[in-house]
Amino acid sequence: MAEPSSSAPPLDAPGGVHGIDGRGSPAEPAFDRRHAWLIAAMIVAFMLINYADKSVLGLAAVPIMDELGISNSMYGMISSSFSLLFSLSGLAVGFASARVSSRVLLFTMAVLWAVAQVPVLVVASVPALVAGRVLLGAAEGPAASMSMHALYKWFPADRRGLPSALQISGAALGMLVAAPVVTWLITGFGWRSAFVVLAVTSVVWSMVWWWVGHDGPYGGRSAGRADGHRAAAAARPAGAPGVSAPPERLPYRRLLLNGTVLGSIAAAFGASWALALSHAWLPAYLRTELGMTPGGAATVISAISAFSLVLLLSVPVLVDTLRRRGRSSRWSTGAPQGAAVAVAALAMAALPLVDGHGAHLVLLAVAFGGHAIVFPLHYMTASAVVPALQRGAVFGVVAAAGTLPGLVSPYLTGRLLDSAATRSDGWGQAYLLSAGVMLVCAVVALVTIRPERDARRLGVG
Fold first, then answer.
1. pLDDT tens digit string along 306-361?
2. Which of 280, 276, 258 has the alpha carbon at shortest distance from 397?
3. CA-to-CA distance for 40 and 414, rounded, in angstroms?
């Protein structure tokens, strides 16, 4: 069961989690700013390690392929094996999150990340790489959704824009920091050293999290009722009679088949396609196709991550401001998701058509960094149509469906590289295919994400 936070207000105190305001509605839980931001910092570090773990194989791709003598297709299969249990574990843990505390869930994940680095250190072989990546994928599948769920337990709905952006920025920071550091480890001490350092880092984080990572006051039944009463009151015309509180639970079929959740999944799918391609193949592309050194490739990847970080830290803060000023969620959080995926897709499609390093690097930044804002925003749109008690489960479903490209994109790219007449043709085919998939996802997101409409239909707003 979820553990109460030691810093949360007493359950029966006025204004506490179970407090009642003067109008007979559940009161707003007390916002513990200090501990909330401590949790946010821990989750940013969690996501940083998460994305460093994901990217280490791609950063070490060239020396691993050379040492083990594996083909592009085989490397693509190894990379795709990461996603074999990724979505399934994200789905299962999402439903378990209603009964298991975020403290336990995130601690367990981080410990398993460390264990997943061990097989390749014992014996460097294709089976060991696959075993480690499968276990790592299973342990990282719920990471983004469950860490966001843990974060939302500490922040009220109108304060989640910046924390959400910071949580996702852990991904950009992971690449910004991991690319040069991991590349330095690989070139200076061999590719195995990077796996060792990441394992140790995961263990250290898990120990600190067990000490500070208690659940906050915004994730339980009372928080859900309070959110529901506020939403219902805001939607009720002045002078109108009171309405009953929104339901604590709804059938998952209704939650998962409404347009906003489906559009959020589509946006996540399109952005994850580019992300999976970036993790698996971007370092190899920069080195083998553009002729960069390991250090040069790491610098470009860090620059792309810095661009993503700027977007992540600016757009969601603007979203919170727009929401406080009464702008609809469709235009403040929905439309930007579809637009970001569409712009990234167009940049991806243009990559095979341009010459010159400068234009190429700009397009790479937009194609592999411009979609970053989708990840915090698709959680915000999905949470707007879901009762608080079911938020973790729906987040798990959205993440599981949205991250399926990791199972397909790396392997398919390897096959295209091996089957094309030239390696350049293979890269061009891979980028055009990716652009097509992403454009379809962008259109679906733009058309279907309408949080206010779907919240009214479901009776949660």
1. 888 888 777 766 776 776 777 777 777 778 889 999 999 999 999 998 887 788 88
2. 258
3. 37
Show the 3-state SS of the chain: CCCCCCCCCCCCCCCCCCCECCCCCECCCCCCHHHHHHHHHHHHHHHHHHHHHHHHHHHCHHHHHHHHCCCHHHHHHHHHHCCCCHHHHHHHHHHHCCCCCHHHHHHHHHHHHHHHCHHHHHCCCHHHHHHHHHHHHHHHCCHHHHHHHHHHCCCCHHHCHHHHHHHHHHHHHHHHHHHHHHHHHHHHHCHHHHHHHHHHHHHHHHHHHHHHCCCCCCCCHHHHHHHHHHHHHHHCCCCCCCCCCCCCCCCHHHHHCCHHHHHHHHHHHHHHHHHHHHHHHHHHHHHHCCCCCHHHHHHHHHHHHHHHHHHHHHHHHHHHHHHHCCCCHHHHHHHHHHHHHHHHHHHHHHHHHCCCHHHHHHHHHHHHHCCCCHHHHHHHHHHCCCCHHHHHHHHHHHHHHHCCHHHHHHHHHHHHHHHCCCHHHHHHHHHHHHHHHHHHHHHHHHHHCCHHHHHHHHCCC
Q: Per-residue pLDDT tens for 53-79?
A: 888 888 888 888 888 888 888 888 888
The β-bridge partners of 20 are 26
pLDDT tens-place string over residues 177-225: 777 888 889 888 988 899 999 999 999 999 999 999 888 887 654 444 4
Model confidence pTM above 0.70? no
